[in-house]
Design goal:
five-stranded mixed sheet; Heat Shock Protein 90; 9 helices; Helix Hairpins; alpha+beta; two-stranded antiparallel ribbon; about 350 residues
Amino acid sequence: MKNKKQKGNINLYLKFTLLFLFIMLLSGLIVSLLAFIFSLISNKEMGFILRALVATTVIGVLLTFLVSRIFLREVNKLKRGMQEISEGNFDVRLDLKHPSELKSISDNFNLMAKELSATQILRNDFISNFSHELKTPIVAIRGFAKLLQNPNLSEEKRKEFLDIIFNESNRLSQLSSNILLLTKLESQGIVIEKKEYYLDEQIRQCILLLSKEWETKNISFNLGLNKINYYGNEELLQHLWINLIGNAIKFSKKDSMIKIYLEESDNEVIATIKDSGIGMDTESIKRIYDRFFQVDSNNSAYGNGLGLSIVKRIIDLSNGTINVESKIGNGTTFIITLPKD
């Protein structure tokens, strides 16, 4: 892209240089020709020629002025468009057609405006969603804390309200942690602090860390984990497994089974996590990596819709891939592929 832009600039400079040289050469030829003609003609004929030259000069100046006005009008459109962008109006578009260099600038300008508009929409959506997610637990904590001030409240109700405050506090803490982690990952360009460790053992440890969640629902696991020595960032991949296995537990039915397989080839590691939960429709699958998107909005208390955004970013940083297969009522399967360095 950079070489293409440089080539375009060189072509523009070359055109102007050749145009200047052509005008200079043409001017020299005309002067030489006039000098030769003047030496051959009479005074009467000379007056006629001079009047013709003055008329031609005036016409030339007018034509030059008109051409310049057309060119400057296009440049002024570009100037006004840039002014609109600087004032935050990313909906402005240009349609510059001549010369060809301005057409290229116009196309690049429209592409830039489109990208800025999309970024602005994402930013506004993020602020709106974050504000909503932040407000919900705060309102709950404040409301139940106020109820606890009632001296006639029974011990049972008091314990119930304290549990709600505790859970909402945890939700708020998790939201803050996920926002910080996602922000850190999005500003990170490469994976650092890599080391060798056993990927199968890490997955087992993540399952144990989530034991409270799956024991409550009496969920069992079918594990097919090959022993794999992997070179990567252990902390990042722990976030990956915690989120994916946590989601599988979250959306699985009671007394169901989650299947997790881990295998490798010469160049990559493949992990498969399959649950028997509620599943997703096609539209939900398209949006599952969007920030704050939740498949089941009625169960939004289960999470904040950032887990799979974090998963996708970790996969991208690791130069891997993630695919999902799901149908309503038939569970969901995530297939993760990680390259072996």
